[in-house]
Write a structure and sequence with these properties.
With 243 residues, the protein is an alpha/beta fold. The model has no long low-confidence stretch (mean pLDDT 96). It is 42% helix and 16% strand. Bound molecules: nicotinamide-adenine-dinucleotide. Nicotinamide-adenine-dinucleotide binds next to helix 1 and helix 4. It holds the Pfam family adh_short_C2.
Protein backbone atom coordinates (compact mmCIF):
# COMPACT_ATOMS: atom_id res chain seq x y z
CA UNK A 1 0.00 0.00 0.00
CA UNK A 2 3.05 2.23 0.06
CA UNK A 3 2.36 5.32 -2.04
CA UNK A 4 -1.41 5.15 -1.53
CA UNK A 5 -3.25 8.17 -0.13
CA UNK A 6 -6.48 8.42 1.88
CA UNK A 7 -8.77 11.19 3.16
CA UNK A 8 -10.75 10.45 6.35
CA UNK A 9 -13.28 12.78 8.01
CA UNK A 10 -14.25 12.74 11.67
CA UNK A 11 -10.74 11.41 12.22
CA UNK A 12 -9.98 13.10 15.54
CA UNK A 13 -11.64 10.31 17.54
CA UNK A 14 -14.02 7.34 17.46
CA UNK A 15 -14.58 5.41 14.24
CA UNK A 16 -12.74 7.92 12.02
CA UNK A 17 -9.61 7.74 14.18
CA UNK A 18 -9.72 3.93 14.07
CA UNK A 19 -10.08 4.03 10.26
CA UNK A 20 -7.13 6.43 9.92
CA UNK A 21 -4.93 4.20 12.11
CA UNK A 22 -6.03 1.04 10.24
CA UNK A 23 -5.12 2.59 6.88
CA UNK A 24 -1.79 3.86 8.21
CA UNK A 25 -0.96 0.37 9.46
CA UNK A 26 -1.14 -0.76 5.83
CA UNK A 27 1.29 1.94 4.72
CA UNK A 28 -1.36 4.33 3.39
CA UNK A 29 -0.60 8.07 3.84
CA UNK A 30 -3.65 9.56 5.60
CA UNK A 31 -5.12 13.08 5.62
CA UNK A 32 -6.99 13.27 8.94
CA UNK A 33 -9.82 15.81 8.66
CA UNK A 34 -11.99 17.00 11.54
CA UNK A 35 -13.57 20.18 12.89
CA UNK A 36 -11.60 19.39 16.06
CA UNK A 37 -7.84 18.97 16.37
CA UNK A 38 -6.79 15.61 14.88
CA UNK A 39 -3.07 16.11 15.51
CA UNK A 40 -3.05 13.38 18.22
CA UNK A 41 -4.01 10.79 15.60
CA UNK A 42 -1.50 12.21 13.12
CA UNK A 43 1.24 11.93 15.78
CA UNK A 44 0.32 8.28 16.43
CA UNK A 45 0.58 7.59 12.71
CA UNK A 46 3.92 9.36 12.39
CA UNK A 47 5.33 7.66 15.51
CA UNK A 48 4.66 4.31 13.81
CA UNK A 49 6.56 5.45 10.73
CA UNK A 50 3.53 6.53 8.68
CA UNK A 51 2.62 9.79 6.93
CA UNK A 52 -0.26 12.02 8.02
CA UNK A 53 -1.67 15.45 7.20
CA UNK A 54 -3.90 17.28 9.69
CA UNK A 55 -6.82 19.19 8.17
CA UNK A 56 -9.08 21.32 10.39
CA UNK A 57 -12.39 21.52 8.56
CA UNK A 58 -16.11 21.75 9.21
CA UNK A 59 -17.50 19.42 6.53
CA UNK A 60 -20.91 21.11 6.67
CA UNK A 61 -19.31 24.00 4.74
CA UNK A 62 -19.17 22.69 1.14
CA UNK A 63 -16.35 25.03 0.05
CA UNK A 64 -14.22 24.12 3.07
CA UNK A 65 -14.90 20.40 2.54
CA UNK A 66 -13.92 20.65 -1.14
CA UNK A 67 -10.80 22.58 -0.23
CA UNK A 68 -9.80 19.95 2.34
CA UNK A 69 -10.13 17.11 -0.18
CA UNK A 70 -8.15 19.13 -2.75
CA UNK A 71 -5.38 19.78 -0.21
CA UNK A 72 -5.21 16.07 0.67
CA UNK A 73 -4.90 15.10 -3.01
CA UNK A 74 -2.26 17.77 -3.60
CA UNK A 75 -0.30 16.60 -0.52
CA UNK A 76 -0.47 12.95 -1.55
CA UNK A 77 -0.11 13.42 -5.30
CA UNK A 78 -3.58 11.93 -5.89
CA UNK A 79 -6.31 10.20 -3.91
CA UNK A 80 -6.85 6.43 -3.70
CA UNK A 81 -9.16 6.01 -0.70
CA UNK A 82 -11.67 8.10 1.23
CA UNK A 83 -13.85 7.52 4.27
CA UNK A 84 -16.56 10.15 4.72
CA UNK A 85 -17.37 9.50 8.33
CA UNK A 86 -17.94 12.75 10.27
CA UNK A 87 -21.39 12.82 11.81
CA UNK A 88 -23.50 14.20 14.65
CA UNK A 89 -26.53 12.63 16.38
CA UNK A 90 -28.84 15.64 16.71
CA UNK A 91 -31.17 15.80 19.69
CA UNK A 92 -33.81 13.37 20.96
CA UNK A 93 -37.31 14.66 20.19
CA UNK A 94 -40.36 13.33 18.37
CA UNK A 95 -41.07 14.69 14.89
CA UNK A 96 -43.78 17.13 15.98
CA UNK A 97 -41.34 18.70 18.45
CA UNK A 98 -38.15 18.55 16.37
CA UNK A 99 -36.65 22.04 15.89
CA UNK A 100 -35.90 23.24 12.35
CA UNK A 101 -32.41 24.50 13.13
CA UNK A 102 -31.24 21.20 14.62
CA UNK A 103 -32.88 19.18 11.83
CA UNK A 104 -31.06 21.10 9.10
CA UNK A 105 -27.79 21.27 11.04
CA UNK A 106 -27.80 17.45 11.18
CA UNK A 107 -28.49 17.27 7.41
CA UNK A 108 -25.73 19.79 6.66
CA UNK A 109 -23.12 17.82 8.63
CA UNK A 110 -24.15 14.21 8.00
CA UNK A 111 -25.52 14.38 4.45
CA UNK A 112 -24.06 17.67 3.19
CA UNK A 113 -20.61 16.75 4.51
CA UNK A 114 -20.65 13.34 2.83
CA UNK A 115 -21.96 14.87 -0.40
CA UNK A 116 -19.38 17.69 -0.62
CA UNK A 117 -16.47 15.40 0.24
CA UNK A 118 -17.65 12.62 -2.09
CA UNK A 119 -18.07 15.04 -5.00
CA UNK A 120 -14.54 16.39 -4.56
CA UNK A 121 -13.08 12.90 -4.10
CA UNK A 122 -14.73 11.59 -7.28
CA UNK A 123 -13.22 14.47 -9.28
CA UNK A 124 -9.73 13.41 -8.13
CA UNK A 125 -10.34 9.67 -8.47
CA UNK A 126 -11.47 9.97 -12.07
CA UNK A 127 -7.78 10.17 -13.00
CA UNK A 128 -6.74 6.74 -11.69
CA UNK A 129 -9.73 5.11 -9.96
CA UNK A 130 -10.30 4.76 -6.24
CA UNK A 131 -12.61 3.60 -3.49
CA UNK A 132 -14.85 5.47 -1.04
CA UNK A 133 -16.64 4.28 2.08
CA UNK A 134 -19.28 6.50 3.66
CA UNK A 135 -20.38 5.98 7.25
CA UNK A 136 -24.11 5.34 7.31
CA UNK A 137 -25.74 3.52 10.26
CA UNK A 138 -28.30 0.88 11.14
CA UNK A 139 -30.49 4.01 11.09
CA UNK A 140 -30.13 3.90 7.28
CA UNK A 141 -32.50 0.91 7.21
CA UNK A 142 -35.19 1.57 9.82
CA UNK A 143 -36.78 4.26 11.95
CA UNK A 144 -35.46 5.07 15.42
CA UNK A 145 -37.94 6.84 17.73
CA UNK A 146 -36.98 10.45 18.60
CA UNK A 147 -34.10 10.49 16.07
CA UNK A 148 -35.79 11.68 12.86
CA UNK A 149 -33.03 14.06 11.72
CA UNK A 150 -30.30 11.46 12.22
CA UNK A 151 -32.32 8.66 10.60
CA UNK A 152 -33.28 10.84 7.61
CA UNK A 153 -29.62 11.81 7.08
CA UNK A 154 -28.44 8.20 7.23
CA UNK A 155 -31.16 6.95 4.82
CA UNK A 156 -30.04 9.72 2.45
CA UNK A 157 -26.39 8.68 2.75
CA UNK A 158 -27.40 5.16 1.68
CA UNK A 159 -29.16 6.56 -1.39
CA UNK A 160 -26.26 8.83 -2.27
CA UNK A 161 -23.81 5.94 -1.89
CA UNK A 162 -25.79 3.66 -4.23
CA UNK A 163 -26.28 6.39 -6.83
CA UNK A 164 -22.60 7.34 -6.93
CA UNK A 165 -21.72 3.64 -7.10
CA UNK A 166 -23.79 3.05 -10.23
CA UNK A 167 -22.63 6.30 -11.84
CA UNK A 168 -18.91 5.55 -11.43
CA UNK A 169 -18.69 1.72 -11.49
CA UNK A 170 -17.49 1.64 -15.10
CA UNK A 171 -14.92 4.34 -14.37
CA UNK A 172 -12.93 2.41 -11.77
CA UNK A 173 -14.39 4.03 -8.66
CA UNK A 174 -16.25 1.99 -6.05
CA UNK A 175 -18.53 3.64 -3.48
CA UNK A 176 -19.85 1.70 -0.48
CA UNK A 177 -21.05 2.43 3.04
CA UNK A 178 -20.79 0.83 6.45
CA UNK A 179 -23.87 0.69 8.65
CA UNK A 180 -22.70 0.24 12.24
CA UNK A 181 -25.01 -0.70 15.09
CA UNK A 182 -23.95 0.60 18.47
CA UNK A 183 -20.24 1.47 18.62
CA UNK A 184 -18.41 2.42 21.81
CA UNK A 185 -17.64 6.11 21.03
CA UNK A 186 -18.42 9.54 22.46
CA UNK A 187 -21.30 9.96 19.97
CA UNK A 188 -23.52 7.55 21.85
CA UNK A 189 -22.50 8.38 25.43
CA UNK A 190 -25.73 8.62 27.37
CA UNK A 191 -27.80 7.25 24.46
CA UNK A 192 -26.83 3.60 24.74
CA UNK A 193 -29.14 2.13 27.34
CA UNK A 194 -29.22 -1.53 28.37
CA UNK A 195 -32.10 -2.48 26.07
CA UNK A 196 -30.30 -1.02 23.04
CA UNK A 197 -27.19 -3.03 23.84
CA UNK A 198 -29.32 -6.14 24.44
CA UNK A 199 -30.95 -5.75 21.00
CA UNK A 200 -27.56 -6.67 19.51
CA UNK A 201 -27.34 -10.47 19.28
CA UNK A 202 -23.59 -10.10 19.90
CA UNK A 203 -24.57 -8.83 23.36
CA UNK A 204 -22.24 -5.84 23.28
CA UNK A 205 -21.48 -2.70 21.28
CA UNK A 206 -18.76 -2.79 18.61
CA UNK A 207 -15.34 -1.30 19.19
CA UNK A 208 -14.38 1.41 16.63
CA UNK A 209 -11.59 -0.89 15.38
CA UNK A 210 -14.18 -3.50 14.37
CA UNK A 211 -15.93 -0.95 12.13
CA UNK A 212 -12.53 0.15 10.75
CA UNK A 213 -11.86 -3.46 9.75
CA UNK A 214 -15.04 -3.47 7.62
CA UNK A 215 -14.10 -0.11 6.08
CA UNK A 216 -10.68 -1.50 5.19
CA UNK A 217 -12.28 -4.56 3.61
CA UNK A 218 -14.74 -2.50 1.55
CA UNK A 219 -11.96 -0.19 0.36
CA UNK A 220 -10.13 -3.22 -1.01
CA UNK A 221 -12.91 -5.54 -2.17
CA UNK A 222 -12.81 -5.62 -5.96
CA UNK A 223 -16.24 -5.69 -7.67
CA UNK A 224 -18.06 -4.71 -4.46
CA UNK A 225 -19.85 -1.42 -4.99
CA UNK A 226 -23.15 0.17 -3.96
CA UNK A 227 -23.28 -1.90 -0.78
CA UNK A 228 -24.47 -0.57 2.59
CA UNK A 229 -22.86 -3.15 4.86
CA UNK A 230 -24.26 -3.73 8.36
CA UNK A 231 -21.49 -3.97 10.97
CA UNK A 232 -23.81 -4.51 13.89
CA UNK A 233 -23.31 -7.82 15.68
CA UNK A 234 -26.51 -9.13 14.09
CA UNK A 235 -28.80 -6.23 15.11
CA UNK A 236 -30.62 -5.96 11.78
CA UNK A 237 -30.70 -9.72 11.19
CA UNK A 238 -32.73 -10.43 14.32
CA UNK A 239 -36.42 -11.29 13.96
CA UNK A 240 -38.22 -8.67 16.09
CA UNK A 241 -39.69 -10.09 19.29
CA UNK A 242 -37.64 -13.30 19.30
CA UNK A 243 -35.07 -13.58 22.05
N1 LIG B 1 -21.10 5.34 17.62
C1 LIG B 1 -22.14 4.69 17.08
O1 LIG B 1 -22.82 3.92 17.75
C2 LIG B 1 -22.46 4.88 15.62
C3 LIG B 1 -23.40 4.01 15.05
C4 LIG B 1 -23.72 4.15 13.70
C5 LIG B 1 -23.11 5.15 12.95
N2 LIG B 1 -22.21 5.99 13.55
C6 LIG B 1 -21.62 7.02 12.71
O2 LIG B 1 -20.22 6.92 12.75
C7 LIG B 1 -19.66 8.19 12.44
C8 LIG B 1 -18.57 8.51 13.44
O3 LIG B 1 -19.15 8.61 14.71
P1 LIG B 1 -18.41 8.20 16.06
O4 LIG B 1 -19.27 7.24 16.74
O5 LIG B 1 -17.00 7.88 15.81
O6 LIG B 1 -18.58 9.58 16.86
P2 LIG B 1 -17.56 10.57 17.57
O7 LIG B 1 -18.42 11.65 18.11
O8 LIG B 1 -16.63 9.83 18.47
O9 LIG B 1 -16.69 11.13 16.34
C9 LIG B 1 -17.25 11.96 15.37
C10 LIG B 1 -16.14 12.85 14.83
O10 LIG B 1 -16.70 13.65 13.80
C11 LIG B 1 -16.25 14.98 13.98
N3 LIG B 1 -17.22 15.91 13.42
C12 LIG B 1 -18.49 16.13 13.81
N4 LIG B 1 -19.05 17.10 13.07
C13 LIG B 1 -18.10 17.50 12.18
C14 LIG B 1 -18.07 18.48 11.16
N5 LIG B 1 -19.11 19.27 10.93
N6 LIG B 1 -16.94 18.60 10.42
C15 LIG B 1 -15.87 17.83 10.67
N7 LIG B 1 -15.83 16.90 11.64
C16 LIG B 1 -16.94 16.74 12.39
C17 LIG B 1 -16.14 15.15 15.50
O11 LIG B 1 -15.30 16.24 15.84
C18 LIG B 1 -15.57 13.79 15.89
O12 LIG B 1 -14.16 13.78 15.87
C19 LIG B 1 -20.83 9.19 12.43
O13 LIG B 1 -21.21 9.44 11.10
C20 LIG B 1 -21.92 8.43 13.15
O14 LIG B 1 -23.20 8.83 12.74
C21 LIG B 1 -21.86 5.87 14.86
Amino acid sequence: MSGRVAFVTGAARGIGAAVALRLAREGVAVAVADREDASGIAESIEESGGRALVLRVDVSDPDAATCAVDRAAEWGGGLDFACNNAGVPGIRAEVADYPDDVFWRVQRVNLGGVFACLRAELRHMLAAGGAVVNTASGAAFAGVPSSSAYVASKHAIAGLTKTAAVEYAARGIRVNAVAPGLVRTRLVEGLADESFVAAHPAGRPAEPEEVAEAVWWLLNAPFVTGVVLPVDGGLLARVPGLS
